[in-house]
Specification:
about 110 residues, alpha+beta, two-stranded antiparallel ribbon, 6 strands
Amino acid sequence: DAVRDHARFDTTLYRTRIYTKPDEEEPMYRFQSNDDMPMESNEFEKGLHHVLNNSPTFNGKRLCVLSTEKGHLTLGKDYIKWVDQGGSKVTRKELSTETLWRNALEDHFM
């Protein structure tokens, strides 16, 4: 049952398709922020396999996402973006060089 499966998650990452559906938030990923599931568990392995092999968001793209207390941070192909919880505020900074991209990765994700 999908509703019961989602009950164990306390955080949902949403996306908004700015150009096609600017007023709709679409749930993308759900997770438990304090999950201590062993990496060897079947659920973890199946979920990771799905994300790495079937998800158009992560498959073949350069992307890092970090959940924060206030929302989340995304490092994409040539940008870094801060999104407040619920998407009330989005700040995006273009990263025009490989050096700027690597600096953002080190500053915010390591």
